[in-house]
Amino acid sequence: MIGSPARNRRAYVNAHVLAPLQGLNGPGGILVEDGWILAVGKSVTRESVGATSTVIDCKGRLLIPGLVDMRVFTGEPGSEYRETLASASEAAAAGGVTTIIVMPNTQPVIDDAAIVDYVLRRARDTAQVRVAPMAAITKGLAGEQMAEIGLLRRAGAVAVTDAVKAVSNANLFRRALMYARDCDLLVVGHAEEPSLSGGVMNAGEAASRLGLSGNPAMSEVIMLERDLRLVEMTGARYHVAQVSSALSLDVIRRAKDKGLPVTCGVSIHHLVLNETDIGAYRTFFKLAPPLRSEDDRRALVAAVADGTIDVIVSSHDPQSDDTKRLPFAEAAFGAIGLETMLSSALGLSANENIPLPRLVEALSQRPASILGLEQGRLQPGAPADFAIVDPQLSWTVEDAALRSRSKNSPYEHRTLEGHAVETVVAGRTVYEYAG
Amino acid sequence: MTSTATRPTLFKAQHLLAISDLSPLDITAVLDLAQHYAESGKGLAKDGRVLAGQTQVNLFFENSTRTQSSFEIAGKRLGADVMNMAVATSSVSKGETLLDTAMTINAMHPDFLVVRHQSSGAVELLSQKVSCAVINAGDGQHEHPTQALLDALTIRRHYGRLEGLTVAICGDILHSRVARSNIHLLTKMGVRVRCVAPSTLLPSGIANFGVEVFRDMEKGLAGAEVVMMLRLQVERMSGAFVPSLREYYQFYGLTEAKLACAKPGALVMHPGPMNRGVEIDSGVADGVQSVIREQVEMGVAVRMAILDGLDRTRRAGSTS
Prior knowledge:
The complex is a heterodimer.
Chain A: E1 9-19, E2 24-33, E3 36-41, H1 46-49, E4 54-57, E5 62-65, E6 67-72, H2 85-94, E7 97-102, H3 113-126, E8 130-133, H4 149-155, E9 160-161, H5 170-182, E10 187-189, E11 201-202, H6 205-210, E12 214-215, H7 217-234, E13 238-240, H8 246-257, E14 262-267, H9 268-272, H10 294-306, E15 311-313, H11 321-324, H12 341-351, H13 356-371, E16 386-396, E17 415-425, E18 428-432
Parallel strand pairs in A: 1-4, 1-5, 6-7, 7-8, 9-10, 10-13, 11-12, 13-14, 14-15
Antiparallel strand pairs in A: 1-2, 2-3, 5-16, 16-17, 17-18
Chain B: H1 24-40, E1 55-60, H2 66-77, E2 81-86, H3 98-106, E3 112-117, H4 122-127, E4 133-139, H5 145-159, E5 166-170, H6 177-188, E6 192-196, E7 212-214, H7 217-221, E8 226-229, H8 245-252, H9 256-259, E9 267-269, H10 282-285, H11 292-319
Helix pairs in contact in B: 1-5, 1-11, 2-11, 5-6, 5-11
């Protein structure tokens, strides 16, 4: 549906336009034609655009580049009962997300150019927002044989990753980094040493009290250290999908200080929740990597603020009742987050001192630039992908209203502040808040 | 205490899922009532059959001989109709989920559901879905509250009190729900609790549980009034936690020599089943200081008190 942008010229005026990489942070508007931005900034007003445009009054609300979510799991192909590209895209649109990067651990795995093509075609035909896949580093995500990285890139994969697994064979991972460097393709790592991460929640006192097996932060640190040594050796562009602990941040800082081509992500859940939220075995809080201590959470928030962490992702992972309504140890990992990420992030800006421009960078502009996408910027000639946001709008997360096919939201019944009121992809309105 | 209508409530809890469901006063009340049942033995008067006409279902997802039969005898002595669900031959082994099983049993309107499950938190999950009183008979590595209560009763019968005593819990604390429930109960009752184990068998953060930690067994036992041994849970040893059983016995097996470090006449306890010659020497297990058989006896009395107590809570709830 993205293929044919709206033909008409539309002007969104009387907004607070915020796009830090373009130096925009103040009153203004945006003029859109044929799915592209014609003009943006304080020059775009009701008076300046004239009668040729349809004028939309933003009533002083925030206008930001649409969010680019680098870590979204869907069930398509293979587990459509959990989530389709269409249902994920509706959840995304409602959350101000205009581009979703889908993970390759589907059935079949996205490890073949034909599957990349399939996903892109299905997205074109059914999705409300832009969809781009990451493809597998190793065939079948089995960690044994390199996938056809060059052909996958040519078919449209924006990066390679083994999704929720690290490539534990260091030599294979080294070669994959070298090969991906030659193809100028980003490699996205999952930082978890498998032999140390058999647990179901953060290792420590809370796990001991619940009688649950622990997954220590050291598991993340060890794999991250290994990956970064290999990056140093190969010069490949490397992005760690998610970090969860304060210890990992020191490792990232050191790598960045050395000038390595390294970037870092964190899930929104790890910025707003900690291990104590698990309470009495609430499986919607069972995540991989696990929620860690409050000290870790605060360190992650500070690292987003100071730029050590580049990107915030939803790590949207739809799971059905069948896999979640089980004893904690037996339940699946993962939580949905596409629809709540923006609200949670606005909460961080209000309560935790992360400047709003920094959040917009981490949610939209940085991921777009890391992936080499033309989205995530508000400037003439860029795609007209943006969201109009009311930071004060208060809403309650209820299963029935969530657009995702799966309802495993850790925020169920919580009241959040801030919501997209309109989401625009390629100049087309894909979501409007209905109250 | 004998008439069904006039029994005062014992505690507020509707289920017994963890020791945290009970306050120190509740625990004392449970132990007092259990003491009464222990004295009555099999000669409980006919009007003491306070659960007559009620249904108790024992749902054991993990094999257990002693706990299941203890709950069965406790229920029957109080007059309840007791049914044992044989999970291994039921629809659970055909892929039915825990919650489906719970709903099915709940539809038959039992009054008590006694549950053991291999996953921590499974009994809690189940209690949210049924309308009867649920008793945790052991969930994963989380809790086994009736075991802690029967251990406390056994100790109290010998020392007349709990407060101020020193209890050394020794062995595989990492995998032990018995250890966790005992730590919670004993610290709550003012007992000095020591944990004695190699670091590989200690849960992380154990020092924050209000216990003293010892890696040297002789130091850990010094001056203790009670030595509580734990089963080395060989079936849970998914990795290498100790190099060998032989080495474990050398350092952490309770022998006469090590027991001599404890206070003279210190009680030797074990929740069973024992690995003789691994965590405990046969001579010590059967020796004069051993109260292991008394623990089993107290198990029935404590479980009667819990069933009775939960029934009183239900009656109080339905009349108020």
